[in-house]
């Protein structure tokens, strides 16, 4: 029975090649756009995770605090949740580092009669702690100690990236929604056209005792096939673009210690599932209207 | 046959197309396994009466009960089963032009849920019965009017229906073919089908002694009753 429906659906696809091709192309384009967004946000999220795992806080100690108290503070901080390790950087070490960085203007530093830099602690964050808010909370917590002058962390640029990622994710969701509706709309219209082109045949089928199910089934199968084909083609096109892009740009320059990846298989399956659902829904909408006589 | 139960009961039925009345106050019963002619001049309402039986047109007023189903109250999902009771030889054929003769006939059996090899066998046998087995793969528009009529007849009898509705079944046929088709319908009647033939062909009516229901301008003028 199912096989017969499938045969009739395929026959119908064969009989209206142009119409169905256009539908599949539109679905493929929708999927292409949506999956492009997904590809970007997926990789950006990955990149941010990598960066975040390298996040560290610099804790500046107030001047004149004895070493013993600093050691207690280090001990306290290293027991805070999310902290991987704590390292003490004396003001001498800091100055030496600075001197090395600024070797051209070394005279500037050499002329100082007193080290202007404070002692500091370098606090490395556990990579598992991805949430920006958690890092911020930790910083505030450390800052509340009376020994601490200031806590510095690369908040601004990381915050910005997180912000961009959120915008990207939001637009991906919106785009998905819009293109999903577009796909539903186009399938509904294709099915309607096919339905009209076959209205005489369908009337005859009803006259000789066909049930609604018998008439509808091939249309649903068509919708599902169109959705699946469109989804698959969209993803394949994106993959081809992806490969071309990978081979033509120098990735290391963009993000070293990080590899750009294609969207995960799970997401691909979800995309194809959604485009099949769009095909089904398009059918449902147009058939519901037209089979009511 | 007068004592068998009515399979079709028609109570004060009217059919109007806009302001035009095609059938007016028709009341009659048709028993199971009866052989009936519905006669009358062109425009009398013969086709309309047959259409109401399988709900090819909605009933304007009155009631029709077919095999226990009240057609004015029938649920949408029961309609296919009503229609499978009938094998209809449509006056205007109603063949699907872009399907082959084989596919047109097989469709009825697919709808009824028969198995593929059973369908192949049955289509072959009904096409043989109407003498069209060599045109199995032709498309209806490539056939003559008479040939299309034979295909329509083959389709109508393919599903072994309880009731055969034949609307001018010999209208496009030569004398010999017409005789063959009438013999075929008599065989099916003998095997237990109820046969209702709408025609204004007096020759045809005279060839078989059977009940005659005569319509004129939508009114029931004469009913000879079961013979
Ligand atoms: N779909 C329709 N719309 C409007 N009027 C119709 C329709 N079908 C039939 N009629 C009218 O109803 C009346 C009965 O038509 P019907 O087809 O039942 O006649 P008939 O007895 O079958 O005639 P014929 O012998 O020519 O086939 C006619 O006057 C016809 O014009
Ligand atoms: Mg007629």
Task: Characterise this structure.
The complex is a heterodimer of chains A (293) and B (227). The model of chain A has no long low-confidence stretch (mean pLDDT 82). Helix content of chain A is 72%, strand content 8%. Chain A has eleven helices and four strands, in the order ααβαβααβαβααααα. Chain A is elongated and about 105 Å long. Chain A has helices spanning 2-15, 17-53, 67-78, 91-101, 106-110, 132-143, 155-197, 199-207, 212-248, 251-254, 265-290, and strands at residues 56-61, 83-89, 120-125, 148-152. With 293 residues, chain A is of the alpha+beta class. Chain A has two domains: 2-51 and 168-292, no CATH class; 56-152, Alpha-Beta Plaits. Chain B is of the alpha/beta class. Chain B has a domain at 95-159. Chain B has helices at residues 46-53, 79-85, 101-111, 116-129, 145-158, 175-190, 202-207; strands at 6-17, 20-31, 35-39, 61-66, 69-70, 86-89, 163-167, 194-198, 211-216, 219-223. In chain B, the strands form two sheets. A six-stranded mixed β-sheet of chain B has the order 6-7-8-3-9-10, sandwiched between helices. The longest helix of chain B is centred in the C-terminal third of the chain and has 16 residues, at 175-190. Chain B is globular, with a radius of gyration of 17 Å. The mean pLDDT of chain B is 93. The A-B interface holds A 1, 4, 15, 200-201, 204-212, 214 and B 54, 56, 76-77, 79-81, 83-84, 88, 90, 94-96, 98-99, 107-108, 110-113, 155, 159. The complex binds adenosine-5'-triphosphate and magnesium ion. Adenosine-5'-triphosphate binds at residues 17, 20, 22, 40, 42-48, 91, 200 of chain B.
């Amino acid at each position: 029975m199912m096989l017969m429906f499938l045969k009739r659906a395929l026959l119908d696809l064969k009989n209206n090649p142009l119409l169905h091709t256009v539908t599949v192309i539109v679905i493929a384009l929708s999927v292409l756009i949506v999956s492009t967004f997904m590809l970007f946000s997926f990789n950006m999220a990955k990149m941010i995770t990598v960066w975040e795992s390298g996040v560290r806080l610099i804790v500046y100690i107030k001047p004149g605090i004895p070493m013993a108290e600093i050691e207690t503070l280090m001990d306290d901080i290293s027991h805070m949740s999310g902290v991987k390790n704590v390292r003490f950087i004396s003001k001498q070490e800091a100055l030496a580092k600075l001197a090395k960085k600024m070797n051209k203007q070394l005279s500037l530093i050499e002329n100082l009669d007193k080290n202007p830099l404070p002692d500091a602690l370098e606090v490395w964050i556990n990579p598992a702690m991805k949430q920006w808010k958690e890092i911020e909370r930790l910083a505030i917590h450390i800052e509340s100690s009376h020994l601490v002058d200031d806590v510095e962390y690369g908040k601004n640029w990381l915050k910005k990236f997180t912000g961009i990622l959120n915008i990207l994710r939001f637009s991906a969701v919106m785009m998905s929604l819009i293109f999903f509706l577009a796909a539903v709309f186009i399938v509904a219209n294709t099915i309607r056209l096919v339905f009209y082109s076959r209205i005489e045949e369908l009337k005859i089928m009803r006259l000789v005792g066909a049930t609604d199910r018998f008439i509808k089934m091939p249309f649903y199968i068509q919708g599902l096939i169109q959705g699946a084909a469109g989804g698959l083609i969209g993803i394949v096109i994106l993959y081809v673009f992806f490969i071309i892009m990978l081979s033509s740009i120098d990735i290391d320059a963009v993000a070293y210690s990080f590899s750009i990846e294609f969207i995960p298989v799970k997401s691909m399956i979800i995309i194809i599932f959604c485009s099949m659902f769009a095909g089904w829904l398009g059918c449902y909408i147009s058939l519901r209207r037209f089979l009511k006589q | 046959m007068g004592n068998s139960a009515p399979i079709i009961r028609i109570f004060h039925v009217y059919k109007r197309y806009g302001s035009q009345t095609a059938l007016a106050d028709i009341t009659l019963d048709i028993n199971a396994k009866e052989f009936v002619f519905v006669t009358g001049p062109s425009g009398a309402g013969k086709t309309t009466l047959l259409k109401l039986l399988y709900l090819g047109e909605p009933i304007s007023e009155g009631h029709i009960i077919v095999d226990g189903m009240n057609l004015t109250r029938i649920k949408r999902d029961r309609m296919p089963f009503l229609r499978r009771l009938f094998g209809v030889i449509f006056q205007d054929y109603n063949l699907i032009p872009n399907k082959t003769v084989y596919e047109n006939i097989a469709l009825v059996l697919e709808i009824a849920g028969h198995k593929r090899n059973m369908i192949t066998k049955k289509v072959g046998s009904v096409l043989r019965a109407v003498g069209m087995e060599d045109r199995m793969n032709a498309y209806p528009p490539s056939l003559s009017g008479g040939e299309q009529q034979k295909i329509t007849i083959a389709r109508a009898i393919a599903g072994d229906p309880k009731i055969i509705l034949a609307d001018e079944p010999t209208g496009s046929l030569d004398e010999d073919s017409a005789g063959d088709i009438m013999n075929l319908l008599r065989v099916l009647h003998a095997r237990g089908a109820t046969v209702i033939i709408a025609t204004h062909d007096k020759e045809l009516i005279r060839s078989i002694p059977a009940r005659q229901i005569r319509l004129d301008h939508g009114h029931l003028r004469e009913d000879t009753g079961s013979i």
